[in-house]
Amino acid sequence: MDLIADRGRRVTVEELNTSRLLAHARKQAVQRKLDDMLIVDVDAHHYENENFKEFIPYMENDVLKQLTMQSISKSRGGIMPTNVGYQDMGGRVTRYPMRGSEKTEAGQMRDVQLGHRWMDAMSVDYSCLFPTGMLNIGMHPQKEMEAELCWAYNRWLTEEVMPQSNNRFFSMLCLPFNDADEALRQVEKFGDRKHVGGFMVTTVRNTGVQENQYMKVYRAIEERGLVLSFHSGPNWAEPIFKTCNRFLSVHALGFSWYNILHCTNWVINGMGERFPKLPVVWIESGLAWIPFLMQKLDHEYMLRPSEAPLLKKKPSDYMRDMYYSSQPMEIQDMQALECTFRMMNAETQLMYSSDYPHWDFDLPSTIYDLPFLSEKGKHNILGGTAARLFKLPPRNDKQKENLKKFGNLAA
After folding, report:
1. How many helical (H) and strand (E) elements, i.e. helices and strands, does the chain have?
2. Where are the alpha helices (DSSP H) in 142-235?
């Protein structure tokens, strides 16, 4: 029997199976009858760095492709911008260093098999798949490398991975946002492909979402009836965070800060008026910042409305028009959380996300067990709203009945 050291304990390879690691999640799902609810996870991840050799050949620039392949072969790790931190340590460790030991069956892509295992354990029907290391792509010093990596990853994901997922994976593809022309090209190339629900901008970057160069990108996404999302992350190299001496601090502030920054620019510069039919989602920044920003922007706007001439209503009203992912949901003060849900119209604007397999992931029970949510609110947040937004069909009759009951059955 194969044995592997795990934090001072000897465990068998069989214990590293995702289904076994999530046995309690499966028990929760059965107890709550979650299989009867359509559950859509709008933010889950895989480790694309494990598949560099599969998608790097899709790069178009032969010189950059050769440099990248050489970097991989010599284990130099010079492809992505680095980010100091301890994401895979602490909390509920998901045994990332031993992921390679988990056994999968021949004949089907490993990423797909591992994805289905955790989805089945949590009773997740559909998952929006995002990369992990590439969430820092906005800080790459070469914008042409950002464009090439996004192109290669998007081709590989849409041509190799998602077609094998039995229609259970979809994605909002990563945009090379530092080059607006290249971002538009990728929207035009991949926007009509199956399993593409929209496009994602990583918010760890120094470009403003309100800049005129991006208007054509937003319009192209809106015209196709797709979704635009902004995905946050931490960055200890950010000058403002260099005073932080603990990763905990950077992790707590970073995920919220980047979405606060870009959401402010989006709202105050009237993007909601310019693109009223474009659904916008703010991902992986928790929820506690939303009431703060609503109140702060409303207060400033009432003092200086001339600086936001495109607005026809208060900033908080535009924020209530947009969507938010749930993870990591702050649940230490239930009354404060209930107030947050009320202020953001969570029962129609919030969508469940797990962030699995990262260490701070949330199970569907995080939403289901909230004492102040109505039955309709639970169904909407766990999957109904996302099903309508991304046009996802039910997977069994009970789900169809619930989607119809709460007005979320996709056309």
Report:
1. 18, 10
2. 143-156, 180-190, 215-223
Whether the Cβ atoms of residue 130 and residue 43 lie closer than 8 Å to each other:
yes
CA separation for the pair 94, 100 (Å, rounded) = 12
Q: How many CB atoms lie within 10 A of CB 164?
A: 13
**What does residue 174 show for φ and ψ, rounded to 5 degrees?**
-70, 125
Q: Which residue has the tokens 């620039």?
A: 61
**What's the pTM value of the predicted model, to 2 decimals?**
0.94
Give the angle subtended at the CA of 313 by the CAs of 288 and 408, to the nearest 5°: 65
> If you ran DSSP here, which 8-state letter would residue 82 be given?
P
Q: CA–CA separation, 382 vs 387, rounded Å?
A: 10
Average pLDDT of adjacent 10-residue blocks, the chain of 411 residues: 45 72 94 96 94 95 93 69 68 64 90 96 98 93 96 98 97 98 98 98 96 98 98 93 94 96 98 98 98 98 98 98 97 97 98 94 97 97 97 95 87 56
